[in-house]
Specification:
mainly alpha
């Protein structure tokens, strides 16, 4: 093999490694954590006239690193279920990235990148709290998010199998990023955040929960004891519908609690989409895989749209 050919092979291998790492990181799914953090920052600016660009940049970087740690840990510890799931069908919203089952990466790679990302997020937390004086609870808030994300799939805790994983995700992608973003700018947490975070938490709970439907046969076969496996598909549909209804209710309760009412204008089409998903669930449309795939994608839009409606309300 000539020198040029060797360089081409090395270059191709490098590009493939980068592509695999990006796929493992699942960039589109970072929006569900970044958008609530942006919302918390906007709230600090609008309610307290406080905004520090450096603090925001470091904070959002820590959020991304925590999500990278979470997703990569899941790729490692869910390898068995993901491999089985991908052998049956390919879903863009469940069963992991498919990189390890495809043989494009060893299972050890995402474990180490997960640990490194978690450590880097911790370093940012130290800088924020002790160098930028963002408040005494900065590291605590970051640690809750970082450790909850890492141990969602990782042993020995593996929250995903303890029937509380979905609730933990609701908290960590709902209240936590909004409150943390606000806190590191102001050193306080406004009471309206507690109202705002509930519909965001409920909709992200439903994102995780509905994404478990395509993986149900594989999770059942491998003994993965998430909430859907514990209660079954029929009760799971009822939970999805109930949580959707609660999200609608709490959005309008947040408006009553002081959120500017113009947010309703953005929320109305999101509400219609969410109602449509509930009707589809009642009609058991989720039993067809292609339809379920569409529902999972639309369900993410419900979560993002709910957060976007609050952002619009304060802009």
């Amino acid at each position: 093999m000539g020198e040029n050919e060797q360089q081409f092979v090395i270059s191709k291998s490098f590009v493939q490694n980068i592509r695999s790492w990006v796929a493992l990181s699942r960039p589109p799914f970072h929006t569900v954590g970044i958008l609530p953090f942006i919302l918390g920052t906007i709230l600090a600016w609008r309610l307290e006239a406080r905004f520090n660009a450096l603090i925001f940049s470091l904070g959002v970087s820590a959020v991304v690193l925590i999500m990278l740690s979470t997703y990569h840990a899941g790729e490692h510890f869910d390898e068995r279920e993901d491999r089985l799931s991908k052998s049956r069908y390919h879903s863009r919203f469940s069963g992991g990235s498919g990189i390890i089952p495809a043989g494009l990466s060893s299972a050890a790679v995402p474990l180490w990148t997960s640990i490194v990302c978690l450590l880097l997020a911790g370093i940012i937390g130290v800088i924020l709290q002790f160098a930028l004086n963002t408040g005494p609870y900065t590291l605590l808030l970051g640690s809750i998010g970082g450790l909850s994300g890492f141990f969602y799939s990782s042993k020995p805790f593996r929250f995903v199998e303890r029937g509380v994983g979905e609730l933990l995700i609701g908290f960590c992608y709902g209240w936590l990023p909004v409150a943390s973003a606000y806190y590191i700018q102001t050193e306080t947490v406004a009471s309206v955040i507690h109202w705002i975070s509930v519909p965001i938490a409920l909709t992200i709970f439903n994102v995780i929960f509905l994404n478990e439907f395509p993986d149900y046969p594989s999770d059942l076969e491998t003994g993965k004891r998430n909430t859907l496996i514990r209660i079954g598909i029929n009760k799971g549909v009822k939970v999805f519908i109930l949580v959707s209804c609660l999200a609608w209710l709490f959005f309008f309760l947040a408006i009553q609690a002081g959120v500017p009412s113009r947010g309703v204008y953005v929320y109305c089409p999101i509400l219609i989409l969410s109602v449509t998903l509930v009707i589809m669930a009642l009609m058991r449309k989720h039993e067809k895989f292609k339809t379920l795939e569409i529902m999972c994608g639309a369900n993410i839009l419900v979560n993002l749209g709910t957060t976007a409606a609050f952002i619009f309300a304060y802009l």
